[in-house]
Write a structure and sequence with these properties.
The complex is a heterodimer. Chain A is mainly beta. Chain A has no helices and nine strands. In chain A, strands 1-9-8-3-4 form a five-stranded mixed beta sheet, with no helix packed on it. Chain B is mainly β. Chain B is built from no helices and eleven strands. In chain B, strands 2, 4, 5, 6, 9, 10 and 11 form a seven-stranded mixed beta sheet that branches. Chain B has a four-stranded antiparallel beta sheet with strand order 1-3-8-7, with no helix packed on it. In chain B, a hairpin with a 2-residue loop joins β7 and β8. Chain B is globular and about 35 Å long. Classes of the chains: A mainly beta, B mainly beta. At the A-B interface, β3 and β4 of A face β4, β5, β9 and β10 of B.
């Protein structure tokens, strides 16, 4: 699985959009980009995933660059409950079941 | 109803003891996992089972023995507990090859 690089921490104002970057310059053509988050003292929670195209669901949007070497997770209107560690993970989509977590980005949403 | 549940939530025990952590999922998934999150907060896969068959074993000491009595359960038994086993253990489940894994609330194991 390709390695990912994320900033260790970032702050965000409540109600504003939070843009979380992730670099994955060694990603291969059949690897997907996944985002999970872990709220304090809870298990990780799936947010979104994508291969090439931008994706949006009820939680967030995922923007993948054309060369696929980086991506951005966007939380459109951050709330205090979005305070968590956000993990960007790259792995094969259809095969290989394990998730390899890095250090993630600790996001603090402030009122 | 809780999708992935683990018992106990907290476990404090002494070195050398043997303990088990239980995991159950009611999502109808065929694949279950154990992850370990150490004091530095890194999450690492330990085991994965698909239809009761072991498919991933990530160089975990053989003191750790997962047991899957059926597709809905994956228990983790640990023999001769050591201080370094102190961590939070997360169970997860998914359909094999699925994009999304569902995690349990975790079991915080403290070995004294």
């Amino acid at each position: 699985d390709a390695k990912t690089t994320q900033p260790p921490s970032m702050d965000c104002a409540e109600g504003r959009a939070a843009n979380l970057p992730c670099n994955h310059s060694t990603i291969s053509g059949n690897e997907y980009v996944y985002w999970y988050r872990q709220i304090h003292s809870q298990g990780p929670q799936y947010i979104i995933h994508g291969l090439k195209n931008n994706e949006t669901n009820e939680m967030a949007s995922l923007i993948i660059t054309e060369d696929r070497k980086s991506s951005t997770l966007i939380l459109p209107h951050a709330t205090l409950r979005d305070t968590a560690v956000y993990y960007c993970i790259v792995r094969l989509g259809a095969a290989g079941n394990k998730l390899t977590f890095g250090g993630g980005t600790r996001v603090l949403v402030k009122p | 109803d809780t999708a992935v549940s683990q018992t106990p939530k907290y476990l404090v025990t002494q070195m050398g003891n043997d303990k088990s952590i239980k995991c159950e999922q009611n999502l109808g998934h065929d694949t279950m996992y154990w992850y370990k999150q150490d004091s530095k907060k890194f999450l690492k896969i330990m085991f994965s089972y698909n239809n009761k068959e072991l498919i991933i074993n990530e160089t975990v000491p053989n003191r750790f023995s997962p047991k899957s009595p059926d597709k809905a359960h994956l228990n983790l038994h640990i023999n001769s507990l050591e201080l370094g086993d102190s961590a939070v253990y997360f169970c997860a489940s998914s359909h094999r090859g699925a994009y999304e894994q569902y995690f349990g609330p975790g079991t915080r194991l403290t070995v004294t």
